Amino acid sequence: MLPDMKQTAPLNRDPPPGDDDTRTRLLDAARDLFIAHGFQGTSTRAIAAGAGCNLSLIKYYFGSKEGLLRAVLQPEIESVRPLIESLAGDGPPTADRLREFFLGMARQLDSNRHFFRLMFAELMREDSPLGGELLEPVRRNQQSALRVLENARDAGVLRDVDLRATLLLVMGSLLFYHLAYPVASHLVGPRSPEVIDRIGSTAADVFLHGILLEKPR
């Protein structure tokens, strides 16, 4: 009897060969497509075609399309914390430094507006598999920003108010312009450096005048 000549694929293959920038090309293609069409509106075939590589390399480097989204978003989220710490500085908190902090955050949110839109769109999906993983670096960013306000309160610059709610309101006012741009731009104007600075400065003025400790007369 002749032996069975049917061949089966080996269970443990060597990793597919690829040049050093394949992973980067996939990230760049995914970033552009996710921003243009959203996560759900982007296919892995389109990403692979945009990167000029085999579809199977997405699974090899990232595990899945969700893993690719995670690799696109997480570095952007984690880059916010060093900025918060640099804006906070090392000196004693003052009202002027807090205004500069809010203005700097407004500019940072503007420069990364596409990623924040993508992140919030994904986090608002009830079936998102990335919620927990993306929320952890977000939580660390929130803690860093909260420490800025706590230090100012402890230095006697701010009244003793609910700083967590304060931070939520401040960040919400800065983010809303980008998350609801078609609506918000009708109110304050199309996006420009001047408009972003006006939003940041006004948010700082409104909130700081509401929470600054008044000097006794």
Explain how this protein is built.
With about 220 residues, the chain is mostly helical. It folds into two domains: about 20-70, Orthogonal Bundle (Arc Repressor Mutant, subunit A); about 80-210, Orthogonal Bundle (Tetracycline Repressor, domain 2), CATH 1.10.357.10. It is about 70% helix and about 0% strand. It has helices spanning about 20-35, 45-50, 55-60, 65-80, 80-90, 95-110, 115-125, 130-155, 165-180, 180-190, 195-210. Helix 3 (about 55-60) crosses helix 4, helix 4 runs parallel beside helix 8 (about 130-155) and helix 9 (about 165-180) packs antiparallel against helix 11 (about 195-210). The chain is elongated and about 65 Å long.
Concise overview:
The protein has helices at residues 22-37, 44-51, 56-62, 65-78, 80-88, 95-111, 113-123, 131-154, 163-179, 181-188, 193-211. With 217 residues, it is mainly α.
